[in-house]
């Protein structure tokens, strides 16, 4: 039986996945379908795959529609108003951290080694930002084996993040340095780039869904400690600086507040559902 209402859920999740800082996994939790989604993805690669299609196909239609619709808008915003746009992303990421800490009840469950894990994850992301070069154009322009390998593994990592609550697949692409490349490929229908990235996404989902399901069940606190560290470290990576004048500064503050409030609001909805 096809669950057509999942198209609406897919629209919400697709919109979140294309914006760095908003997690599709978080939206799935809020919408009440997260654990069923993980189960359906895992079973999709088993003999029970046909039974999962009624749930996953309309969800995929909604997500695809949202991603394609928002790609042009995001490409324009990143080209014309990069500083306010990234401040919006910054607010989203900062506002997501309390949600993650609440989900794991860190005051009770975090031990010393969890804080060490968190710190290591944050440092790894921070270092990735320090050594990240401006290589986005080369990924599209050169068409080299190395560029397409980067796109493939970017899709793999992004798909892993997409199904993790609290960390955005688009945010992972920002860290790697291919976010604008993928957005550009969506708007220009660059099939070689989209195919390579898409294969990476599918392979990543196939392999990582079972592993993530296991980690979230068997090592919940440690997994959330890693997620929190990734988000904290990403604040350095995504910070755009203040270089565009007074008006842009004011607009950036407004967009930062909007992102922060949106993330806190989504987290509050999830808390209300849990009560």
Write structural notes for this entry.
With 275 residues, this protein is mainly alpha-helical. The chain has helices at 6-17, 24-31, 34-43, 49-80, 82-104, 106-109, 112-130, 136-142, 145-162, 169-176, 179-188, 191-218, 220-238, 245-274. The longest helix has 32 residues, at 49-80. The chain starts with 5 loop residues before the first helix and ends with a helix. The model is unreliable at 133-142 (pLDDT under 50).
Net shape: globular
Largest sheet: none
How far do the termini sit from each other? 31 Å
Low-confidence stretches: 133-142
Q: State Rg.
A: 18 Å
Overall average pLDDT: 80
Number of helices: 14
Could you tell me the strand content as a percent range?
under 5%
Q: In total, how many beta strands?
A: 0
State the share of residues found in helices, binned by percent.
over 70%
Query: How would you spell out the order of helices and strands?
Result: HHHHHHHHHHHHHH
Which structural class fits the helix and strand makeup?
mainly alpha
List keywords for this structure.
single chain; 275 residues; mainly alpha; 14 helices; 83% helix; 0% strand; globular
Summarize the structure.
This protein has 275 residues and is mainly α. It has helices at residues 6-17, 24-31, 34-43, 49-80, 82-104, 106-109, 112-130, 136-142, 145-162, 169-176, 179-188, 191-218, 220-238, 245-274.
